[in-house]
Amino acid sequence: MEPRMDLMANPLGAKIAKRIYNVALAITQSSLPRSVQDLVMLRASQINGCGFCVDYHTKDAAAAGESAVRLHLVAAWRESTVFTEAERAALALAEEGTRIADAHSGVSDGTWAKAREHYDDDQLAALVSLIAMINANNRLNVIVRKPGGSYQPGAFAALAD
């Protein structure tokens, strides 16, 4: 698969990517646990079929110490015993927030209530923003057909201000 365009090679694309990365950096620096962030980004990327983002978030999560078992089971988290209740609440919110078009009501009150049980306002702000940002990134990469497989952990650190 050949990419349609290299957004990072385009001056405007690179400028936009830098801004997106800085939003992601603010989320990373929040009190939302890194493991939850990694799991949510991986799950949304799986749902959206973004090979590049699945590659990116799997490798970054592994480099941060996430176990291979948990990474392999993210796609089947509902049928797995390796995730905490807080992680399950975040994964459910990520799925409903990613599949908005599939559910006429968007994110259900029950899913929101479960997330609210486990996360404070700052963490919820980070989680909601994370779900929105990973979906935007997935769409950018799917539209330009950026393939997965070549990402090296930490490759985007140079984008930070």
Could you characterize the architecture of this molecule?
The protein is globular and about 45 Å long. With 161 residues, the chain is mainly alpha-helical. Helices cover 61% and strands 0% of the residues. The chain contains seven helices and no strands. The longest helix is centred in the C-terminal third of the chain and has 23 residues, at 121-143.
Describe the structure concisely for a colleague.
It is built from 7 helices and no strands. It is an all-alpha fold. It has one domain: AhpD-like (Up-down Bundle), CATH 1.20.1290.10.
Set out the fold topology.
Blueprint: H1 11-28, H2 34-48, H3 51-63, H4 68-73, H5 85-98, H6 109-118, H7 121-143
Helix pairs in contact: 1-7, 2-3, 2-5, 2-7, 5-6, 5-7
Multimerization state: single chain
What is the CATH topology assignment? AhpD-like
Summarize the main sheet.
none
Q: Quick one: CATH superfamily? A: AhpD-like
Estimate nothing, just give the exact number of structural domains.
Answer: 1
The CATH architecture term is Up-down Bundle
Radius of gyration computed on alpha carbons: 15 Å
Sheet-strand content, in percent, reads under 5%
Global outline: globular
Instruction: Return the structural class.
Output: mainly alpha
Domain Carboxymuconolactone decarboxylase-like: 19-96
Protein name: Carboxymuconolactone decarboxylase family protein
Pfam families: CMD
What key attributes describe this structure?
mainly alpha, 161 residues, 7 helices, AhpD-like, 61% helix, globular, Carboxymuconolactone decarboxylase family protein
